[in-house]
Amino acid sequence: DTTVKQNPRYKLARVGKPVNLICSQTMNHDTMYWYQKKPNQAPKLLLFYYDKILNREADTFEKFQSSRPNNSFCSLYIGSAGLEYSAMYLCASSRAGGQDTQYFGPGTRLLVL
Amino acid sequence: GEQVEQLPSILRVQEGSSASINCTYENSASNYFPWYKQEPGENPKLIIDIRSNMERKQTQGLIVLLDKKAKRFSLHITDTQPGDSAMYFCAASERNTNTGKLTFGDGTVLTVKP
């Protein structure tokens, strides 16, 4: 099973409110990633977990948090959503190794009003 | 970091003809180049990839070429079908043995006209 699951598929949030998105995989992958994708733009890496080590991109460091309570689950947390957070959020996972295939989930479409 | 440029952003071809998408990258340390296809409402799926020890790879109507000297790689779809219509993303991975950080191109919307 190469399925990466994401919940919810759609999320409506109010400006200033927190948002928590969930990703899971049962492939025992060491690395899990979160990307933000806006229309007509490339998926942009926000952060990734290698095992228990969190790596956040410098330009999104303060905007997103994440937790990985176990190997299968990874969350993306926005403490205070702004309009600019409206986007598709894609989770992916891969085995350890810089050249291993990343398997993507179906994404969560977040709309902030 | 890495920067990946992908062209064209929109590509329309007639069924049965070929389609080509080109990408360039900046980081000479990048050594893994996957291509993803994303259909409407679906998640991106890997369709083919090439590593830096190869110059050409072919599978099921797809050909990828890699020119390391020019830092350029390309996807060629031969005998296109309406089912090939989708968004295509190229990506480059930095040389890192522990994690596969991908830098994506902006995508190409391919439409195959019957």
Uncertain spans of chain B: none
Q: What percent strand of chain A?
A: over 45%
Percent helix among the residues of chain A?
under 10%
Q: How do the helices and strands follow one another from N- to C-terminus of chain A? A: EEEEEEEEEEE
Strand content bin of chain B = over 45%
Helix percent band of chain B: under 10%
Cα(first) to Cα(last) distance of chain B is: 41 Å
Can you count the helices of chain A?
0
Assembly context of the chains: heterodimer
Number of helical regions of chain B: 0
- Following the backbone from N to C, one meets helices and strands of chain B in this order, namely EEEEEEEEEEE
Low-confidence segments of chain A:
none
Number of strands of chain B: 11
Average of the residue pLDDT scores of chain B: 92
Quick take:
Chain A is an all-beta fold and 113 residues long.
What does this structure look like?
Chain A is mainly β. Chain A has strands at 4-7, 10-13, 19-25, 31-37, 44-50, 53-56, 65-70, 73-78, 87-94, 103-104, 108-112. In chain A, strands 2, 4, 5, 6, 9, 10 and 11 form a seven-stranded mixed sheet that branches. Chain A has a four-stranded antiparallel sheet with strand order 1-3-8-7, with no helix packed on it. Chain A is globular and about 35 Å long. Helices cover 0% and strands 55% of the residues of chain B. Chain B is mainly beta. Chain B is built from no helices and eleven strands. Classes of the chains: A mainly beta (113), B mainly beta (114). At the A-B interface, β5 and β10 of A face β4, β5 and β10 of B.
